[in-house]
Design brief:
Layout: H1 2-10, E1 12-23, E2 26-37, H2 41-51
Antiparallel strand pairs: 1-2
Length: 67
């Protein structure tokens, strides 16, 4: 996890980061107040290398979700 967070630090920008966790069989999303990034496919590929292919992805955020 430390490597993933350090990678987010390297790509600081304006796009909010949502962290997902599984709890009691449900997926919970948490908008990070600390991390926002510049969207870059190099960032996505690095996170996939660190966390696994299915653990990092891009997802459009609607107006209500992004607030």
């Amino acid at each position: 996890m430390e490597r993933a967070l350090a990678t987010l630090d390297e790509y600081r920008g304006q796009v909010p980061v949502l962290l997902a966790a599984r709890e009691n069989g449900s997926e919970v999303y948490i908008k990070s107040s600390r991390y926002s990034v510049t969207m870059d496919f190099d960032l996505l590929n690095r996170l996939k290398e660190i966390l696994g292919d299915s653990a990092a992805y891009l997802r459009p955020v609607g107006p209500r979700e992004g607030k």
